[in-house]
Task: inverse folding
């Protein structure tokens, strides 16, 4: 594995009284694509939210690019260079497509330009004056990914980017994630769609009951397919 | 001289102007309330007291320091806005996660305290404030005092500039987005708590600015905001809670309706706005420009 950009150790997280994450450990190397796989309710989304600092209470260590981020507010974490694309996409109804795209402020130099984003997702250019929530599900997902590319963040947290989308859109999003990796982005991906994740990721972490219970490298996926099916209940 | 429906034009246009002036204050105050409610989810009942504080700040600066009206027009809103920053940081911040009712009770209590303190120190009677633009022009069908005309134009410009800033600029986009989903906006790297403080300060500053503008028209008194704030809440409800354009259009529109009612049937002029509110709530509960959540 490359030098770790993100190192999470002994991470606990709570929503109110509910103790969701019970000691999560994993690392993501610079330029890697890493997925968190697991059944519904295993704690994958909570792990992403914890890295981003938007859960109720966190304990443990989350070191990003040498900076400890537990105890820091989410705007500080974003300015360190982590960008987040939520599962529900978080498109703002009161903003048009272009305003949605331009919303996240640039936190570091070297982000993708708006022209490049429109080249990656031509639909967004055509519909840039439309209200954000009037787009189709696929277009909204493109918008949600597109808008975090501008900021100069080096690490992208993508929560189920293929959920509920047509196969052709899923394929397009896969291509874009591959291009982003080629540009040097580091991606932490939460996915239910293992077939999609398997074609992209360098490594897979299996999350169960609020803990990471296994790690499978891309090269070992074929060999571990039975184990994976058991973990994921497919 | 011609008459419209048996009403002399002097009376008609005179009340129309009065309606527009009242409407200007309704619009500026309800705009501040709408901006604050949109982002903070707090119904700022202290708004009337903050309007009064603006007028008092101008009056005190003139009386004690000789600071003229035009300088107070800038300074007084800044001073009252800073007071708003203190309120937000020390008190309001603690109740965002609670039901609207708590914000309402807190700001209502604060309004009573602030107005009580001013009444205790300066009494209830009004203090006169010199008209900075004396004189007027006879338009033939009515006499237009310069200052009143200026107030209508100035408040219209301020309201439209605020609308533009919120609906058409980057900063406004942050504000609209944070109104919808503050957690995500913060996760994009925007300091939302600071934005909330500044938004509250802006809304409060707008109330104070309206207060300074009102000082030469009405007398400066501790209770000048008390009655006004009730009407302004009706305006906000009619326009649609949190709607920017709704506040401006409804503010001016209701001022005019109130003015015309004074000509047509004076006894109804005090209640016409509340009748409109009741009808709008029955027909369109989210308000004329509001969105149902």
Result:
């Amino acid at each position: 594995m490359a030098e770790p950009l993100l190192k999470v150790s002994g991470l606990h997280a709570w929503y109110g009284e509910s103790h969701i994450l019970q000691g999560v450990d994993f690392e993501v190397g610079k330029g890697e694509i890493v997925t968190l796989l697991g059944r519904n309710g295993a704690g994958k989304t909570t792990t992403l939210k914890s890295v981003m600092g938007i859960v109720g209470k966190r304990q443990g260590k989350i070191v990003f690019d040498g900076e400890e981020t537990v105890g820091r507010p989410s705007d500080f974490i974003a300015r360190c260079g982590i960008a987040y694309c939520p599962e529900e996409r978080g498109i703002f109804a009161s903003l048009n497509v272009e305003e949605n795209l331009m919303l996240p402020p640039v936190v570091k130099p070297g982000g993708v330009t708006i022209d490049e984003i429109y080249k990656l997702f031509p639909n967004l250019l055509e519909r840039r004056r439309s209200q954000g929530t009037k787009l189709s599900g696929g277009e909204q997902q493109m918008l949600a990914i597109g808008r975090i590319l501008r900021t100069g963040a080096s690490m992208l947290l993508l929560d189920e980017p293929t959920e509920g989308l047509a196969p052709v859109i899923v394929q397009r999003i896969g291509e874009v994630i591959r291009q982003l990796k080629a540009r040097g982005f580091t991606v932490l991906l939460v996915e239910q769609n293992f077939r999609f994740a398997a074609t992209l990721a360098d490594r897979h972490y299996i999350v169960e009951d609020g803990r990471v219970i296994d790690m499978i490298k891309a090269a070992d996926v074929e060999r571990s397919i039975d184990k994976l099916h058991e973990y994921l209940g497919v | 001289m011609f008459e419209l429906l048996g009403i002399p034009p002097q009376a008609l246009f005179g009340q129309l102007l009065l309606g527009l002036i009242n409407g200007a204050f309704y619009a500026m105050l309800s705009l501040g309330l709408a901006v604050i409610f949109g982002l903070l989810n707090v119904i700022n009942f202290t708004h009337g007291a903050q309007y009064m504080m603006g007028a008092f700040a101008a009056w005190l600066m003139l009386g004690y320091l000789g600071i003229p009206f035009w300088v107070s027009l800038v300074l007084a809103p800044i001073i009252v806005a800073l007071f708003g920053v203190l309120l937000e940081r020390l008190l309001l911040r603690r109740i965002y996660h609670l039901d609207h009712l708590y914000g309402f009770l807190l700001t209502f209590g604060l309004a009573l305290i602030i107005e009580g303190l001013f009444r205790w120190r300066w009494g209830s009677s009004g203090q006169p404030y010199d008209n900075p633009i004396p004189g007027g022009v006879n338009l033939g069908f009515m006499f237009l005092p310069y200052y009143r005309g200026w107030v209508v134009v100035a408040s219209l410009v301020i309201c439209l500039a605020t609308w533009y800033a919120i609906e058409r600029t980057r900063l406004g986009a942050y504000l609209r987005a944070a109104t919808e989903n503050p957690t995500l906006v913060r996760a994009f790297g925007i300091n939302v708590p600071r934005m909330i403080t500044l938004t509250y300060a802006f809304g409060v500053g707008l109330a104070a600015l309206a207060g300074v503008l009102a000082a030469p028209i009405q007398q400066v008194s501790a209770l000048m905001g008390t009655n006004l704030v009730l009407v302004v809440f009706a305006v906000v409800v009619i326009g649609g809670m949190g709607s920017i354009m709704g506040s401006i259009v409804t503010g001016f529109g209701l001022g005019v309706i109130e003015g015309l009612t004074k000509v047509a049937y004076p006894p109804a002029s005090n209640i016409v706005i509340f009748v409109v509110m009741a009808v709008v709530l029955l027909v369109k509960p989210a308000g004329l420009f509001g969105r149902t959540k």
Summary: Chain B touches chain A through 18 residues (CB under 8 Å). The longest strand of chain B covers residues 136-138. The CA atoms of residues 186 and 293 of chain B lie 22 Å apart.
